[in-house]
Structure prediction request, 120 residues.
Amino acid sequence: MAGVRLLRETRWNKNMGDDVLTKLHISHALGERSIRVASHIAETINRVLDLLDDQPTAVIEALIDYRKQQQSQEHRKPRRDLGEALITYGQATLKEGREREHRLLQGITGMPEPGTNTSG
Prediction:
């Protein structure tokens, strides 16, 4: 029984040490504005990409058009580069969305989309 008790105490003490270290890291990070801002930016980028993935094709098309219009007015190269990357991501997402809609339509109707030739 003493061995089990020692094992539990060792685990508890190890976890407690990890908790204290984690708490120190978080406390320090929350005190640094640059770390909070960087974390917020990273989370925002992830959420934007997740939101794009969930949109219907019409919304993605409108966003691509909007970004292209903004792109023509942007004079700062880093922003232009980011805009181009977002347009590229949007176009890839749009392609996936169209393919998904096509498969859904074909699954519902059992027929290929009008204007497509599926014969070999």
